[in-house]
User: Fold this.
Amino acid sequence: MNTLELTGITMVFNQGGANEVTALDGIDLSVAPGEFISLIGPSGCGKSTLLRLVGDLLSPTSGTAQVNSKTPHQARLDRDYGMVFQSATLLEWRRIAENVELPLEVMGVAKAQREATAREMLELVQLEKFSDHYPWQLSGGMQQRVAIARALSFKPSILLMDEPFGALDEMTRERMQMELLRIWEETNTTIVFVTHSIPEAVFLSTRVVVMSPRPGQISDVIDIDLPQPRVFETREDTRFFELLTKVRESLRKVEGEEPGA
Amino acid sequence: MTSDRLHKYGPAIVLFVGALAVWEGAVRVFDIQGFILPAPSAIAATFASQWSELWPAGLGTFLSALGGLALGSVVAFLASLSAARWTAVRDGAMPLAIAANSTPIIVLAPIANAWFGLLNPFGTIAVVAVLVFFPIMINLVRGLTSAPATQVELMRSYATPSRTVLAKLQMPSALPYLFSAMKVAVALSVIGAIVKEYFGGPQDRLGQYITLKAGLFQFEEAWAAIVLASAFGILLYTVVVALERRVMPWHVSVRSAS
Assistant:
């Protein structure tokens, strides 16, 4: 059973209107449990739209999506998704631990259990010392780790990440990538990860899905056969550079140039 | 801490005392008549001698303002909840709210007198409620719908019931807007109560007191009443600011001050 099964997904915004846009056209994609899939492509290729369709934040114009053999809507009601956005979207009036507890609160988990889980999750992202701080007291990278802890707190089977490290500086970004891989191995969550960065996609993923714009289509799926677990030296591996080149050339074919930032 | 406070409030105190001194000096040097501009010292003396009459009048006006503030806030809160929830309510109610806001108080005062009777303090409460309704309602609607799209998506991804979204996301997001509105509303409430009473109301209220004394050319008394009204306005404002610090210590406007 695949975690994710997309068949002929088409998404048209403002259908019939003067500003009609076909954001996605005929998307087919299967994702096995425990995979780490990156969606990469130039701006406007519909990768964020695709992520939102999977997460039932949007509904496709046509085509079917199955998440754990359910409709995305049912999967959302079953709390199968953890979402992480480019901005940490922490609630500024809640302390760090309270932010991590938010989904558990919504789901009616008892207070003692919530606090224990929040502690465990903050340990996972190594921020246990900051549980009583407010979001504004944390750096951007730390805030994003809190957002990841929050997304994992209710043990969703799929983590949907929309350019989660896009706003971070390069050093923080590489540290966060290592941390995300460690968490991925520990939790065995399936991850769908939207990014603009070729090295990020190659370093993190088991497969990279290359998308082309106007209309958004999958133009290539590249297996990343780098050994697991990925380590710091993976980035210096010859195979890493070969795969970078492969993804880059695939992207050049779709746009005729490298993707914009 | 003490030197911090001095640093913070020092300029305001210097300015206030300086302005009083210039005022006092100008009245004495240019020999300005009391009915044009009484000296601060004269106002202070009148304030003290008239205290037994001023205080009950001021308290009555203050309580009416407070009552109107409470009534207007509650109605505005309920209205903004439904306006934030249903677009149709927002589209339908906004023109009415704007119309209410454009109605001059000099029209509202006689209507209130006709409805509730000249001496019924509820007339003043009703006028104040109408006055404070608009700024609170418009700010709250804005605040309740101010959460960023990604935070709304986040709540959706947890399949959060809408009343939980209201309680855990929309209401806290609206707090800064609410406090901004309340700072405007508390000042409006005192002004509104006095102006309403000016156009008719119980005799033992500040509005009638000012009407009476101004009619008798006793401007020191009128000014003393204004000082008392300002004091009530400042008191209410201070309470709002203190509440703001207590309720949202996380907010950017407050955290730098703590």
Summary: The helical segments of chain A are 47-54, 72-77, 96-106, 111-124, 140-152, 170-187, 198-204, 238-255. Residues 170-187 of chain A form the longest helix (18 residues).
